[in-house]
Design a protein that fits this description.
Chain lengths: 305, 298
């Protein structure tokens, strides 16, 4: 009996000693673990759970399996939203990467004004999203907007940016290239810094011209950073929401309805939480898929270098 | 005869080198001139929209609609600003934004530094898996967990409160990543010396590591500031009371209030853009580092 008590005491002492020795690790990580469980992991799992239920207002009522998913996939407005979102993402990712690379190459060498120019190009990236959206809402106004005024100098007639279903997504793409090309540029500049100068010297000895150096040295060695910028930009752009929410309300005739806009509408206008959660899970799967595919390329390519 | 021939030949060579030199100079000027022209062109494209917003906010109702538009507002009018301040509690909304941003900065700096330090310096089983589990959440968009977060916030009675807005962004995975990356570049020797001298872990972190990490802390603070200003849908659905709305969300209400009244809308936009552009101009190198770090080292 007394030996058992002693054993328990001993175990207690050991535990206390362990806790004391690791108190720093425990105290420093506990808030993070608790926070990420409650605010990230559980809500994400609960979204999956909700997507399998028929819901009434905000409470799950009947388990219906994958019925919500089938409803989403049968709905033509989902496919429209998917098409709009992909079109937007492709245009704005390619555009900001190309312009970002061009600007980085222009600023690459040590030249006076390098920091000045690069901080100008980065500036749109820090402008709060709603301010950015209203700014372009005004500048792309079909009648009084600055862009249409400037275009009139090169003989282009007024473009009905946000009021035409053909122009609304290109307008969003234009806006986002403006906002994000500086971000791509900064990352490309950092990537260019890591390329050893000897490689270029060797190429010059071998008689390579500018294009040869670019194709055979710069581009291949920039690939890891390019893929990184691509992943970040794709994840970000697939979440298009504020532009259609503030400017077009998804219109004209659903031409600017994005996946997240549809998610929002299904949840907070139609109060169909189950179906909205199904859209959320589908969005997550799409993002995970893109990330996985690009990361896989990244890994195999690293292997060869 | 012979001599003069030799002379003329050397002259020729001289001429040739001179010509080559001027040619090189010319191509140098051309190359750099062209570079600068393109850079100035792109800078103009970047800056003109921001300039245009501020200019529009200073025009009158009628001069806004002038065609061709005025590049300089004449007369300069503050009517739009007056209107904005009359219609909306701008001061209160700006205060909300400041409170939210500062709280997020404090929680992120404290908790991300703590966790980042432990991830960088401590060895314990499961550390790398735990770190990967946290970092991979950067891939989960806010929208995916929007509804459960909303239900949770209501259950906790935090709708229409600062905590309701702040809590989901109180610890950002990117912040932990940023701090860990930075801490692992610091030399171990100083910390070890302090430990031998009897300094506790808390002492090492607070007295030695953190003072060495001012650039990383600044970067994290600025990243969090930008994050808090970009947040839109979350504050929109959690707050239903105009007085509690942060500025970026408040201005979208304004659009519906003033259908196509561009003056006041641009005044609101300027109120939001100008302060952050000024902070950016003062601290731009830290901004760039804070928002792009990790990409480079990771």
């Amino acid at each position: 009996m007394s030996s058992k008590v002693l054993q328990i005491r001993e175990a207690e002492l050991l535990l206390v000693r362990w806790l004391r020795r690791n108190s720093f690790t425990i105290i420093s990580l506990a808030p993070v673990i608790i926070f990420f469980s409650i605010y990230v992991y559980l809500p994400t799992l609960y979204s999956v759970y909700l997507s399998l239920f028929k819901t009434k207002l905000f409470t799950p009522v009947n388990f219906i399996g994958f019925q919500n998913y089938l409803n989403v996939l049968k709905d033509s407005s989902f496919w429209g939203a998917l098409r709009n979102t992909f079109f937007f993402t492709a245009g704005s990712v390619i555009g900001s990467l190309v312009f970002g690379l061009v600007l980085a190459l222009l600023l690459e060498s040590k030249m006076p004004g390098k920091t000045f120019f690069s901080s100008i190009f980065f500036m749109p990236y820090i402008i709060p999203y709603t301010a950015f959206t209203l700014l372009w809402y005004w500048i792309l106004d079909p009648v009084y907007g600055l862009i249409n005024y400037l275009l009139s100098f090169i003989g282009i007639k007024a473009i009905p940016w946000f009021t035409s279903s053909d122009w609304v997504i290109p307008a969003f793409i234009l806006m986002n290239i403006w906002k994000r090309m500086g971000f791509a540029m900064v990352l490309f500049l950092a990537g260019l810094n890591t390329i050893p100068k000897e490689l270029y010297d060797a190429a010059i000895v071998d008689g390579a011209n500018w294009w040869g150096k670019f194709r055979h040295i710069t581009l291949p060695l920039l690939r890891p950073i390019t893929l990184f910028v691509m992943v970040v930009s794709i994840i970000y752009n697939l979440q298009l929401f504020i532009e259609p929410f503030v400017i077009t309300k998804g219109g004209p005739s659903n031409a600017s309805t994005s996946i997240v806009f549809l998610l929002y509408k299904t949840a907070f206008n139609l109060y169909n939480i189950g179906q909205s959660s199904a859209i959320a899970v589908i969005l997550f799967i799409i993002i995970a898929l893109f990330t996985f595919l690009i990361m896989k390329r990244f890994k195999t390519e690293n292997f060869y270098e | 005869m012979k001599r003069s021939k030799k002379n003329s030949k050397s002259l020729e060579i001289l001429n040739e080198t001179q010509a080559r030199q001027t040619k090189r100079q010319l191509s140098f000027v051309l190359k750099y001139g062209l570079k600068y022209i393109i850079l100035i062109f792109f800078s103009t494209l970047t800056l003109v929209p921001i300039y245009w917003v501020v200019v529009t906010s200073l025009k009158t109702k009628s001069t806004i609609l002038f065609w061709p538009p005025q590049w300089f507002p004449n007369p300069i009018s503050l009517n739009s600003y007056e209107e904005v301040f009359k219609q909306l509690p701008i001061g209160r909304m700006a205060l909300n934004s400041v409170i939210i941003a500062l709280s997020m900065i404090v929680t992120n700096v404290v908790f991300c530094s703590l966790a980042g330090y432990t991830f960088a310096r401590k060895h314990f089983p499961g550390r790398d898996i735990l770190f990967a589990l946290i970092i991979s959440t950067m891939m989960i968009p806010m929208y995916v967990r929007l509804i459960p977060l909303y239900l949770l916030t209501i259950k906790l009675g935090m709708q229409n409160s600062y905590q309701g807005i702040i809590l989901p962004s109180a610890i950002l995975a990117f912040g932990i990543f940023l701090m860990r990356q930075y801490f692992s570049t610091l030399p171990l020797e100083v910390e070890d010396a302090a430990r031998i001298d009897g300094c506790s872990e808390w002492g090492v972190l607070l007295r030695i590591v953190l003072p060495e990490s001012k650039p990383a802390v600044t970067s994290l603070a600025l990243f969090t500031l930008v994050w808090s200003m970009h947040d839109f849908l979350w504050p929109l659905i959690v707050i239903s009371n105009t007085e509690m709305r942060p500025l970026p969300v408040g201005i979208t209400l304004f659009v519906d209030l003033f259908v196509s009244e561009w003056g006041p809308v641009m005044a609101m936009t300027s109120i939001l853009i100008v302060p952050i552009v000024i902070i950016y101009a003062l601290l731009q190198s830290q901004f760039v580092r804070g928002l792009t770090e990790g990409a480079v080292k990771g």
